[in-house]
Structure formats: structure tokens, C-alpha cells
Fold each of these.
Amino acid sequence: MRSIALGMLLLTYGFLQAADPNPIEKSLAIQRAVAEAKTFLAARQPADAVQSLESVLDHINGDADFLALLRQAYSEELKKEKLKRIPEPKRLADLESKLAILNKADTPPQPEAKPNPKIEDVPSPKIEEIASPPPAKELPLPTPANARASELLQQACQLFIQAQKDSKQYREAATLFAEAHALAPEFSKDQLAAWSYCRIKIAAETWNQSRRDASATNTAVREIESALELVPDHNELQNAGRKLIADVGGKPRSPVPKSAVASAGGKWTSLESDNFRARFQGSPEPIRELLTQAEEARKTIFTRWSTPSASAWQPKCDLVIHENAKEFATDTQQPESATGHAFIKISEQRIVERRIDLRNDDRTMTADTLPRELTYIILADLFPDRDPPRWAAIGMAVLATSTEAERCTRTLERCYRDGELHSIEAFLELKGPPQADGVTAYYVESASLVEHLVKRKDAKTFRIFLMDSQRYGLEKALDRQYGYASVKDLDQDWRRANLTTARGQTP
């Protein structure tokens, strides 16, 4: 039986622990380990792939895809070990033993049953305004002339009342509330409470009918949290929602900052995609396109440096769209000249908040600002244990852009002629821009060095190089991945490839 074999394998590694980590933490850890392992296997480093996978072996609960990848890593390391001039007998025996255990594992263990969330205990919100829906023209909409929005909201209110006797109506009511809100986001408090309750009830019932695995739990938690954001001051629903999250085995994330909503006097609304939640004012149509572009950029960035992300973000990344530079600066405490700002909050080795602030008046938002700031967010997934060096993060972010990357290339020679560039050895020792007037040169040199190393092999190798630098040190990592004997060799190669003749001197 696979369950018995896996138990033996876990005991072999000594990974059994008394405390059972949160399902979301498990999912994130597995996702990172699998991404690292695939990268290492592509680079023909199976021993490192094995190390990444074994670090989360106690979390996988018999996942067939994970075990197949682990079996591949063991097999490739075993082949590599046998090809050595002097193989290590102990390691050969260890790998053969682990492969034998995996090959015997044929029946996956069933996930442990969890109690049903008691939706009956969730009190229906006290609704007065929609108990007897008024005529459409009297509904509190910001644009009463919008006949379609008024009609949808009235239908949703009627279905919500009917759902008190026929729970099947909650799903249709929730759909109509969402359509009305997209057209006219100014709902009354009672209407928001009704919509929130519909979504919470549907999320709980969907989870009841699922396999109740980590994926289903993540989906339920995301939906309940999103529903609760509609009613931040409704104590009954807030308490009921948090209880449901605990019942399904989830863990609430930290509240999304309310500064943007407060600063706009409650005129903000939101739209969501699989991995993003956009907060904005005005028409929803441009935001739908922005969410599509954000999803595409996320996939592109993950694929470039590692592998496509296997699961949706939990929590989602908030995209807060400010109307202009002044509002952006007020809410983010960043200079008005900035076009974007990325923020990550980590608690107990888990990402609990992702946020990107953008400006609606930024003409380069989708071409430059969004992919640049999104790269900073994704780096937290690509480097879960330790942040990459500042120069590497900047260079990777710049390479995600269009016009910024070209501008850095054009500015490099000017910085060289003006004596603003450092030797690579001195540059790598810097923790960041040395002073205010050195910011441009630091960004330009960061982008140039990252681009140089990526061109020498590829983007995935560059990420492995950064990980090797954390494990083995800079010079050993340069030798392992690029064949440079020293940082000086890298400096000479970089100058020869990137710096053209200036002031009559050769680089």
C-alpha cells in the first residue's frame, strides 16, 4: 500500500512532526519546492532537486505528481552517481532504497476528513431596506438613470428574500448582485450585507461538496475573505466568516490596508481575477483589461525565471489604482515622481499580503510599471528563504519592462564615459545605491549585469546562480554556472561585451 510505503519513507528522513502546518503553508511550500526541483533538473543538478523535494516530503499527502517528480530526481541522481569515477556506495544504497520504497507505493492515502462548516450557525444579516424592495427608481444607486443596473439590483434583492426559504436562489442572487455592482458600485449597507452573505454561504456549500483538499480550502478561504471585505463593519458576518475559515481548516490573512478606500470617501470598488484584486474608481472596463494583462505578465515572469506557477496566489495581489501622482504619493508615502510601488508582508514564513500601487495617469503602466513591480512581488515566491541581492532584484525587474530596459542600455555608455560605473567586484559589494546622485548608474549597471549573465546562458540559469551564491558563495557559484574563475574574469567579460569605445579609450 502506498500509505504504508510513504510512512516508511517519511521515517527514513525523520520528517514526522507533532504539529500539522496550515494547509495554505503546505501548499505554498510544495509549490516552491516543485518549481525549484524542475529548475534544478533542467540544469542537470538532480541532487539539488532531491534536496528541495525532500524538504517538504511530510506535506505532500500522497500527491501522485509530486511522487513522480521525486522518483525522477532520485533516478537521475542515481545515474549521475554511477557515472562518477569513484561512486559513493552509501549514497548509491540510499538512493536505491528510496526508489524501491516509491516503486512500492501504489495506493494514495485518503485525505483526513474535516468537519462540515456549519452554515446553519451563520446568522442571516438583519435586512430592512430590501425586505420589501422599493421600485427600481428609488434604489440607492449612484446613477439612477442606469436602468439595467437598477433592474439587476432589484432582481437580486428579490432572489435573496426568496432564498430564505429556497437556498438554491442564493447563487443566482450573488450573480446578479455582482453584475449590478460592476455597473453601479454604490450599494446600501443592507444590500452589501445580503451579497456578502450569499457569497459566504455558497463558498461553504461548495467546500462541503468538494474533496476538501488544500486547493478547495484555499478557494473557500479566498472567497469568504473577499465577501467579508464588502462588510468591514458588520460584526455578525465578520464573526461568522472567520469561524467558517477556521472550520474548513484555513487561516485568515491580514486585512488589506484601508487607506485607499478611506481616502476616496468610499467611492472605490473592486474587480477580481484568479490572482489579482483591482481597487479603482470609475469605469470597470479598463480594469478588466488590466487584470487580463496582469495575469499574462505573472505567467510570463514566472516562466522566464523558473516554471509556470502551479497554483493561484493566496492571498491575491491587490492592484490599487490611484487617479494621479498626488493621490499616489499621499497613500503610499512615495515621491510623486514614482509610478509604482510593490509591497510584500511576510509573517511566520508565509506571505500574508501582496500589493502593488499604480497611477492611472501613468502612460507606461502596462508596458513598464506593472511588470516591473510585479517582478518584485514574484521574487518572494522564487526566493522563499532569502531575498536576492538588491542589484539582482533591480536588474530582473528592469528586464521585465519595455522602454525602461532600452533606456538603461542607452544610458550605460554615458555612465561609463562620466566615470559613474564601478568595477564588478566593487559593485557587488554595495548593498544599494551609494548616494542620491548614484542611483541612475546603480540601476543601469544592475540591469546590464543581469542581462549579460542571462544572455550568457538563460534566465533560469541566472536564478540558479543566485541560489548557488546563497549556498556556496559568489565565486563558486560563478564557476559552477558560468565557468568564471573569479569576479575579475566576469568584470572583463562584461566590459568587453557591453562597453563600447568612449573618449578614445577601449573598455
Note: The longest strand covers residues 350-359.
Amino acid sequence: MDRRAFLLGAGAAGLTVAWSAVGSAQRAVKPHAADLPRDDGAFPIGSVGLQLYTVRGLMQQDVERTLEQVAAAGYRIVETAGLFDRTPASFRQSLDRFGLRSVSGHYPLEQLEHDPDRLFATARALGQEYVVVPSVPAALRSSAAAYVALAERFNQLGRSCRDAGFRFAYHNHNVEFETFGTDTPAYDMLVQRTDAAVVSFELDVYWAYKAGQDPLRYVDRYPGRFALCHLKDGTAPPERAMADVGGGAIDFAGLFRRARTAGLRYAFVEHDQPRDPLVSIRASHDNLVRLLRNG
């Protein structure tokens, strides 16, 4: 099951919220000062979180136990991908119990467009700052013209999220780097045609690498556009197989040196199909701790 199908299946439960509580809910929390890049440019390990899609199988079995192990692996922030049959209030209580914060969440485009109030209530209850669309239906990315139309759609969604107190972002896979017979990858069309004031991007460095792109060149080309990123490694060409951070060829040190240029606020470890999710998230976190400490 791909990410979009997974989110759509989890969407009904994930967006269930008691409407009596919505009126008293606080606006999305502001970032903690400790989670922002320091004056010396170093990226803090406290701003490295986990995309819970990585441990979705374990979350479906036992939310509490899985979150406990996520915290034990060293993570303090997470990005959601569905709430696993929990209400937002219940899920937030579990996060709080283990000292975790959810600063971002993945939500289906369909729900953001057709039921935004309920979605925003969920994100607000979780304390999230970013509402991220992780993928779109194939029909919306079938041509260069389709991507031009999608960019305007994102501008509208970005304004809607801003008015609700959130930031909107889009997460890429490898398909966004198709050129459709032009000289410009579709991803560039999206970045160039969206309003930086209301649209951010969650750069998945692995999928850019898988498509034969250098993710660092995108940061250099479009400074300030990448508030979020996904951290997963890729082995050397031609396989470019997905790997834990530190198990491949992607230049993460170069990425973090560009954190201020990118406008990077949060980075999330992710592995779509780890052999052992807990071993995977620990290995990636430990490698990132060493990398960021050695700077």
C-alpha cells in the first residue's frame, strides 16, 4: 500500500474530533527556540524527528508501545501519517506521555480540499505547525500543464492553511522529476510557480536522488523553500536502493551545511519498507547524532 492509499484508509479515524472541543482549541504551536538552527549554522539534533509512516505496522498493533520505543530511540519530534484509530486528543495524550511533539502531519489532498475545518481541528489538537500533502492522484501530475494547474491549487491551499494558522508543504517522490519533453523537471515548475509566502516544500532527499537528481542543487537553486525534509539514504548507482541514513551515498553533511540556506526547520527520518523498523530508526538516529555533533 502506498502512502496516499494508506492515508486515505486512515483518514476517517484520523480526522475524527469532538466538535465541542474545537472552539476552545489553541492555534498551532510556535516552534521551540531550541529546535531552530543555532547562530553558528549548526542544525540541532532536536529538530530531527521521525515520520511515523516508518513504524506504521507497529503503530497498528500498539500505539503506546511503539511511541515509547520511538522516544527511547532518541526522537523528540514526530510527523504523523494517520492516527491509527485514535482521536486527536487521545493521540496527543500518548505523545505527551512519552515526551514527543508532533510538529507536522501528512494529510490527503482530498481531505484538505473538501473537509479543511475538520483537518485543521485535528492538526491544532496535535499542536502541529505544518500541514503536508504527501502525494497527489496520478491525473493531477500527468503532464506539464497539469503541474502548472497543481501549482495554483497549492497556492490556494497555502492561503487556506495560513489563514487557519498553519504552513502548507508538499512532499515529493521521484515522479515529480519527469520533464514531459521539456527542459524543466515538473518539480521545478511547482517550486517556481508557487508563492513562497504560503507554500513550502518537504524535500525527500532519497526520492530526488532516486530520480537521478542532486538534492543539494535544489537547495542551492531555491533557497528558503525547504522548511522540511525527509532523511533516508540511497545506495550507489545504478541501484540507488533505499537505506538507513548513513548506509548509502547521499551527502547529508552537505545538506545540513545548507540548512539555513534551505530555510530548514525540521528533518524527519523515514524508511518506507524497513526490514526491522526499530533497528532502522535507531541506526538512522545514531548516525545523525554523530554527524551533527561532528558538524
Note: The first strand starts at residue 48 and ends at 51.
